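Recap quiz, item 2
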Amino acid sequence: MLDLALQFTVNGLVVGAFYALSALGLTLILGLMEVVNFAHGEFYMMGGIIAYYLTGVLGLDFFASLAIVVLVMGAFGWVVDRLLIRPLRSKDTLSTALVTIGLSIFLVNTFLLLAGTAPHKVATPFPTAPLLLGPVVINETRLFAVAVAAVAILGTHLLIHRTRLGGAMRATFQNKEAAALVGIDVERIYGFTFALGTTMAAVSGALLGSIYVAQPTVGGLVSLKAFVVVILGGMGSFAGAVIGGLILGVAESLWGGFVSSGYQDVIGFAFVILLLLVRPYGLFHIRSERV
Amino acid sequence: MTAVLSVDHLDVAYGQVQALAGVSLAVEAGEIVALVGANGAGKSTVLRAVSGLLRPRAGRVSFEGRRIDSLSPRDILRAGIAHCPEERKIWPAITVAETLELGAYTRRDAAGAERDRRRVYAYFPRLEERRRQLAGTLSGGEQQMLAIGRALMSAPKLLLLDEPSLGLSPMLVDDLRRVILDIHCDGVAVLLVEQNVHMALDLAARAYVIETGRNVIDGRSATLLQNDALVRAYLGA
């Protein structure tokens, strides 16, 4: 029983690492840029499908494919921001929300046309044999994927807090006008941030596609879960997205393992409703940012 | 008279609302000039148009003989104009030290930025004491000092100061007055927008009075202060 709980917890942490990575992408876009991005799940889906295409169809190396996903989806995110989000920057959030709903529908159907409805697996070079860590079973693909997610999360944290570009991002999102007045090109910062958020979703999708499957229709649920994690953690909070992601992953895994796998996807939403009753701003809302 | 900044017949509109209708003014190198007028007269709008936050609909802004009214805020800053905006606009979750670092964002000369950082800390010793604190935890007066320090970190030739005395205690206003004079003595020209007209006219050699987006009168501060009707109408005395 305890071994089983441990196994479910480890499984949950694996999935939670991707929830965290994907939600981190959304917290940049939703929490900082204030764009309610309903296409976030589709960016995730595209990461998975592109990685499948590169590894499975073109036979490229898994690592090279991940690098290509980063570049392609970064560029894609930048273009989306430039063409769809930027013209609406000064409008209300509802306008961009509608545009991203449209984008989401467009992307799902485009990829259904290109990749079909069947689920695809991203090919990895790792052996499928399970590794035994005491009572817990895991495999190399999972370990690698979690390591990449952890490096991506840490790398983003360092980027935002230790670099000149990160300083410009924080300044822009705390006061855009003051940022412009010290010579920061705020439009470029917005474009970069959207591209970064898009890339994080896509990498998460590519990695999870190597553990489970990539499928054009997966985006809707992924979007909802990313929103759950961002709200759970507190809008715009980095630590909140990471911890919220892990909590959701473990909760789903334990619930699915011990109670009912049929209602696994419901647990996150139940959590958010309960949490918002007690802490309306989420776990890690930063109050000083409301100054 | 060689104006370093000259604003000619500036028109600015917010949508359908005309905010400025043909405002003109000039600032000479190293000079302190005050821009005064009632609330809503368009004083801040003038500064925002000069620093590139707003695009004028008509008129021209030149700096050191070069036309700047279509440049980005970044290029205007690099030309040598820094704008310390109304209400301070500090970054609440960024430390004092990093705020000053970001103030030097466009600079390439690390040694010069370091010199200016020391100069800012010399103007405002409080900021040095609090350099590791988040800006959001500072008092209102300290936030104002930080906003001015941030603007000075770009080593401007002209500083646009918008309502620096707003919400400060009389003692802090005195400090502020001293710092503005120090900045002036270091050779920086200042265009000062103020509600506190007595402080503004006391510091500035010349002043412009505007009302509902139009020039009303301008001249030497001492002369303006002798004009009783003007003082009663605009200067709240």
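Chain A touches chain B through 20 residues (CB under 8 Å).
Chain A has one domain: 2-290.
End of item.
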